[in-house]
Description:
The chain is mostly helical. The chain is built from eleven helices and no strands. Helix 1 runs parallel beside helix 3 (38-49).
Amino acid sequence: MVTQEAWDRFVVGLQLDDPAVIEDAIRYLEADPWEFRSGYLKGHVLHHLANRELDQRQLLRLRPVLLRYCDVGWRFEFPKACRLARRVPIPGLRDALVKGLYGGIVATDVRCLRMLFAMKHPRLSGRDRERGRRIMLQWAGDLQPTTWDARWVAPAAERLWPAGPVAQLLAIAAADDEIERHGARALLRALERSGRRSSRHGTSAKPSQSPPPASR
């Protein structure tokens, strides 16, 4: 269990830019202990490290930490890891995440994509974007994104289908591939929940334009 003493030390030390506490915070992330309240503490550490001055050695040590968040499955602090990836230039992270898109485990690949899109300059090639479209459709069709997912799924869909996500996803929703049909419908629902389903994305926002409900 995370003690109040440990919590207070990280809270105060990180805010004061204490070099010893910054070092201990990075070690804590590297050790990745699994205990009561540890997710909250790791999220706090990730949040504050994004605003600290870190040396090159420390930045390099954070790369495997962030990559592990893509590998281990969904965690409470994953959005904070994505924020750190956005705010701090970590050497080699982008290339490692692009490689992760092709790992073959859809949920892991999607977390790599999400972290890439959190970065300011993901610089995806045409091949990478095509891979991103495929894994997003597979993931969405299998897991059915929840309401909180719409906050990042909808912008991701706009970046993966920049010519007009709604029109292109409606076409996929009527195609033969069952998994991609379910995925396209789920992504359309995410766009609708986020308020992004409008004429500027290739169709109107009228309810009659909604795709039929998925059947399994």
